[in-house]
Design a protein that fits this description.
The chain is an alpha+beta fold. It contains 2 helices and 14 strands; from the N terminus they run ααββββββββββββββ. GO terms for molecular function: phosphatidylserine decarboxylase activity.
Length: 195
């Protein structure tokens, strides 16, 4: 099993601390081992196989946002703590800009999350936005500006609960959507829109 960057940073100290815990306070040691296993589960990074066409989901989770913004459609996916938190490129292209915006840490499924801390990955015709949630305090984008990304490539991860949005290319409208609010999706595999 692959893990997102940062998994060791959280899991190794817990496992190292668990060794003396097992010897001197077995319940504490077992709790630390269970916590380390939970961290590794959270940071899992399974391989994905994008379908041959369509704009794919940037995240595992449930579709929580579908809205029009001018002549564009935004689709947002809420990730709970059980979902894979490695995010993937919904469409290929060259990253034109990576912008970090400071903000609040409201629950990522609420309307107030539109003012949360976020990272925008801007491409020529679409934008992926990684949004921190109430417990997510770190957003880790992988590519820098100028990087060429293929559809389904890993583009970042968010630590501990969050949302990933894609502002779709302008040629897609509501009639092209293949998902609805509340629908469960998988990063890099579930098609959000198709012409």
């Amino acid at each position: 099993m692959k893990f997102a960057p940062g998994a060791r940073r959280y899991a190794v100290p817990l496992l190292v601390t668990a060794v003396p815990g097992i010897l001197f306070a077995p319940p504490v040691g077992l709790a630390l081992i269970a916590l380390a296993a939970g961290v590794l589960y959270f940071y899992r990074d399974p391989d994905r196989s994008p379908p041959p066409s369509g704009v794919v989901s940037p995240a595992d989770g449930k579709v929580s946002v579908i809205r029009e913004e001018g002549n564009r459609i935004r689709v947002g996916v809420f990730m709970n703590v059980w979902d894979v938190h490695v995010n993937r490129a919904p469409v290929g292209g060259v990253v034109e800009d990576v912008e970090h915006v400071s903000g609040a840490h409201r629950p990522a499924f609420s309307k107030e999350s539109d003012r949360n801390e976020r990272v925008h990955l801007r491409f020529e015709d679409h934008t992926v936005t990684l949004i921190a949630g109430a417990f997510a305090r770190r957003i880790h984008p992988y590519p820098d500006a100028g990087a060429e990304i293929q559809r389904g490539d890993r583009i970042g991860h968010i630590s501990f609960g969050s949302r990933a949005d894609v502002l779709l290319p302008p040629e897609y409208g509501r009639a092209d959507l293949t998902v609805e609010r509340g629908e469960k999706v998988r990063a890099g595999e579930t098609v959000l829109v198709r012409k």
